[in-house]
Design brief:
single chain; alpha+beta; Butyryl-Coa Dehydrogenase, subunit A, domain 1; Butyryl-CoA Dehydrogenase, subunit A, domain 3; 3 domains; 7-stranded mixed β-sheet; 12 helices; 14% strand; globular; binds flavin-adenine dinucleotide
Amino acid sequence: MTQSSPVELPYADGDFFAFETLLSNKERDRLHEVREWLDANVRPIAVECWNRAEFPHGLIPQLAELDVMSPVRRQGHSNLLAGLLHAEFTRADASIATFMGVHDGLFTGSLELLASREQQQEWLPDVYALRKIGAFGLTEPLGGSDVAGGTRTTARRDGSSWVLNGAKRWIGNATFCDWVVIYARDLDDNQVKAFLVDTSLAGYSATKIENKISLRTVQNADITLENVVVPEEFKLAHANSFRDTNKVLKATRLSVAWQAVGLMMAAFDVARRYAVERYQFGRPIASFQLVQDHLVTMLGNTVSSMGLMVRLAQLAEEGQARDEQSALAKAFTTARMRESVALGRAVLGGNGIVTDFGMAKVFADAEAIFSYEGTHEINTLVTGRAITGISAIV
Ligand SMILES: Cc1cc2nc3c(=O)[nH]c(=O)nc-3n(C[C@H](O)[C@H](O)[C@H](O)COP(=O)(O)OP(=O)(O)OC[C@H]3O[C@@H](n4cnc5c(N)ncnc54)[C@H](O)[C@@H]3O)c2cc1C
């Protein structure tokens, strides 16, 4: 049993070294404002939505009002604030953070980096205002880690249009989005290009992937494209090879590493409180040295990952962040995250496996974050290639 009234905890959270004080006062106020909004609007519904595997559509107008889209490119905020905001979203709920990671990071990022100025003027206002929801279609049933060289979805030029055929898998938001950026191989030059596909087009269909054990609130889908006709003006003007696709992935890989930080903060929040409130042998389990060791390991993982991400945000600010640094960050932080959520789950004992106690969802959500946007293994090999000059990927 736990004590009946909440225990007053000493001030501490995952940001134990106060990295957020590196923000300007204005940006820090903004971080706190978003944190309060998440506490009021996302936390109360997060577990129920996850249990039911349902997306809270009512949140979309509220997110639009919060005005968090494209914090760096559109709003001119620092990379550090953008990272800390994404961590904060994940701390409140990894599924809503992933919804934003797909709509804002992958989808909007594709338009911001790969569309022409005219295309951006046409599309982005609706996207920023969340009047149009987007998805990012790269992964395929037969092409995951090797999708760069192995994209099987095809694009065939037909007069002033393109005809798309193929299948995509795991596409977040795809059961309800208005638009999806589809990456497809041009049959003429064999290069991967990108197309803004309206999901109401004939030949497009999306089927929800059921029975997930992770990020259950995110609506992932299998997409099929059967002779979907896309006018030329919906081909993203600057998406002409996989090298261009990588410009999007480089940025979003960073935000997934920030997700790992946020999930570790969430695990630490829950485990620390539980350890102080849960009594065994007549005393709080936090009084046992092994439990304190678990909490301190979790905190050390969080702080070291955050320190790495703060430095990477500084490098991004200077335009100096390299692909392999993002890859190392994603690999390192997600490995630390996996250890932390397992320790957190252990601190809760049996209660750690039911979602009512706040840890089971965090524990399960770590699994998707560990694997998406480049698996842990692939990001390790990208880093290994950079430091040895030898590729062990193929
Ligand atoms: C919840 C969720 C949401 C997602 N959202 C999207 C989305 O919105 N849009 C999108 O396009 N994709 C999305 N993805 C797909 C995601 O990016 C892929 O799952 C990921 O890239 C891995 O591909 P895969 O699952 O096919 O695994 P595989 O590539 O089949 O890998 C299986 C295992 O083999 C290992 N492996 C593969 N190749 C090598 C190698 N050369 N050396 C060593 N090990 C190797 C991998 O590391 C992994 O452990 C999502 C995935 C999930 C789970």
